[in-house]
Design a protein that fits this description.
It is a single chain. With about 475 residues, this protein is α/β, with parallel strands linked by helices. The chain has 2 domains: about 150 residues, 3-Layer(aba) Sandwich (Rossmann fold); about 260 residues, 2-Layer Sandwich (Dihydrodipicolinate Reductase, domain 2), CATH 3.30.360. It is built from 16 helices and 15 strands. The strands form 2 sheets. Strands 14-13-12-11-7-10-9-8-15 form a 9-stranded mixed beta sheet. A 6-stranded parallel beta sheet has the order 3-2-1-4-5-6, sandwiched between helices. Helix 1 links the parallel strand 1 and strand 2. Helix 1 packs across helix 2, helix 6 packs parallel to helix 7 and helix 11 crosses helix 12. The radius of gyration is 23 Å and the shape is globular. Bound molecules: NADPH dihydro-nicotinamide-adenine-dinucleotide phosphate and the ligand O=C1O[C@H](COP(=O)(O)O)[C@@H](O)[C@H](O)[C@H]1O. The site of ligand LXAUTJHC has 3 residues, from loops. It holds the Pfam family G6PD_C.
């Protein structure tokens, strides 16, 4: 469904990695699919001024490099709608934004019965978390906060205290209904399918508890480097970038109890109720941090950096459904493979077959449109009772009638335009997430262990997943 109200999307940090890789291509997708209003404009901001032509070139290059083939063709069309202004958090230059916004609003309603105030203004903060509060305050100072929607990237804060301070600033300026805290893993097709498969099907849903599942794994290894965003990354690290954010949210989608309904409030409540039962991490027993060899030689990384580029954690979910079942969460940069997988390692119902049984698993790939793979012990056809392992894969893109998936950033942006908050996080859930994560920020934080680029991270992380081992490995 497209939205009719004219729109200005203000993209703060428009030259950054996230904007180029995700947000601008998402905009190209929405434009091609007719999901943007007829009248819209994109206003980029950043600390260094660049010309309108430079911004247009950046936009075209971003869609060229990171957009789909179909979106590339329409990239030129996007540049008909752009402007660029200076940094809004800087007192010297923040006057630029109100003027630029005003011009765009007027231009958008020109020739219609609409008033410039009818234009929906969405601010997308694709900037480091340290800039969220200054930009929010600057919007207030400039009187630009009424009626706007603001999208905050993750991590929303970098500690429990900074999360609370940021949220206090945000609520001084905005109503909760104006705030969209994004975690794009919630926007992935396959993450959304997790609860559909579970609650619509007793084969999966009936086995979704501690009686049937021995381990849950949420594994997101990446071959990706961080050289192009070392400044941001060194101040963040894998645990803040991915664990307290994406991996916790996906773990919550796996662990949650059935929601009372399918409304935004019901789904959010179910997801966030279970985060309140995440036991605070025990860094000594349950966490391994790593740093890939060569990381400290990157431009922008100090020689003595102790930033983690890898994290593996064993999380305990203290609900009746999951008590005693380890949730193994792992992610890292420059690892052996790229994947985004949830694995349920199933228990054997009896020991009739001894040790020959297994592995029995449900594996759910979160990449692309997603896939569900069942791995089960079977009888190997033949005269003897010999066991083998069989696998069946269901790729969601093969489901009939054929779907029309939106990439997560395009889907979430569309939700912001429609005001649909189902897939966004709230202070209640984030408060619980920070409480479970907090021990990793203190003195007990383990030193990151070195690992070879192209490997599966420090060997010590393998022990966390015993006795079954990580489903994703060589
Ligand atoms: N990269 C990714 O894959 C993902 C990133 N994120 C999140 O997105 C955010 C940005 O990350 P990323 O793009 O990787 O980082 P980058 O360092 O690549 O980009 C950040 C951008 O922010 C701009 N910036 C910094 N301070 C300000 C400010 N005060 N006002 C306006 N612009 C500012 C910089 O632009 P300039 O130099 O022009 O000022 C820079 O281009 C982070 O919160 C991150 O966690 C979330 C999901 C995925
Ligand atoms: O938020 C982030 O996510 C990306 C991985 O997400 P993907 O869905 O695009 O693969 C990660 O590389 C990045 O470090 C992190 O900030």
């Amino acid at each position: 469904m497209s939205v009719d109200r004219p729109l200005v999307l203000v993209l703060h940090g428009a030259r950054g990695d996230l904007s180029r890789r995700m947000v601008l291509p998402a905009l190209a997708t929405l434009q091609r699919r007719g999901l943007l209003p007829e009248r819209w404009a994109l206003l980029g901001t950043g600390r260094e001024p660049i010309s309108g032509e430079e911004f247009d070139a950046l936009l075209r290059d971003a869609v060229d490099e990171f957009g789909s083939d179909a979106d590339r063709a329409g990239a030129r069309e996007l540049t008909r709608h752009t402007a660029y202004a200076g940094d809004v958090s800087d007192d010297d230059t923040h006057d630029e934004l109100p003027g630029a916004l005003d011009r765009l609003r007027r231009a958008l309603v020109d020739g219609t019965d609409l008033d410039p105030q009818d234009v929906l203004v969405v601010h997308y903060l694709a900037v480091p978390p340290s800039s969220f509060a200054p930009i929010t305050r600057a919007l207030h100072r400039a009187g630009l906060h009424e009626g706007i929607r603001v999208v905050y990237e993750k991590p929303y804060g970098t500690s429990p205290e900074s999360f609370r301070e940021l949220d206090a600033v945000v609520h001084e300026v905005l109503d909760e209904q104006q705030v969209f805290r994004i975690d794009h893993f919630l926007g992935k097709e396959a993450t959304q399918n997790l609860h559909v498969s579970r609650f619509a099907n007793e084969l999966l849903g009936g086995a979704w508890d501690r009686h049937h599942v021995a381990q849950v794994q949420v594994d997101v290894p990446e071959t990706l480097d961080v050289a192009h965003r070392a400044g941001f990354y060194d101040a963040t690290g894998a645990a803040l970038d991915m664990l307290v954010t994406h991996l916790f949210q996906v773990a919550a989608e796996v662990a949650m109890d059935p929601p009372t309904g399918l409304s935004a409030d019901d789904l959010t409540a179910a997801r966030e109720d279970v985060i309140a039962h995440f036991r605070p991490l025990d860094p000594g027993a349950d966490v391994v941090l790593g740093q890939f060899e060569g990381y400290r030689e990157l431009d922008g990384v100090p020689d003595d950096s102790t930033t983690d580029t890898f994290v593996a954690a064993r999380l305990w979910v203290d609900t009746d459904r999951w008590r005693g079942v380890p949730f193994l969460l792992r992610t890292g940069k420059r690892m052996a493979a790229s994947a985004q997988q949830v694995t349920l390692v199933l228990r054997s119902p009896s020991d009739l077959f001894g040790e020959d049984v297994g592995p029995n698993r449900v594996e759910i790939s979160l990449a692309g449109s997603g896939a569900v793979r069942l791995t089960t012990t079977v009888k190997r056809p033949g005269p003897d009772l010999a066991l083998a392992t069989g696998t069946a894969t269901l790729r969601l893109e093969d489901v009939e009638p054929e779907g029309d998936p939106l990439p997560p950033y395009a889907g979430l942006l569309q939700d912001v335009l429609e005001g649909d908050r189902t897939l966004f996080t709230t202070p209640r859930g984030l408060e619980s997430a920070w409480r479970a994560f907090e021990p990793l920020l203190g003195d007990a934080r383990p030193d990151p262990l070195p690992y070879r680029p192209g490997s599966w991270g420090p060997v010590a992380a393998d022990a966390l997943a015993e006795p079954h081992g990580w489903a994703l490995r060589d």
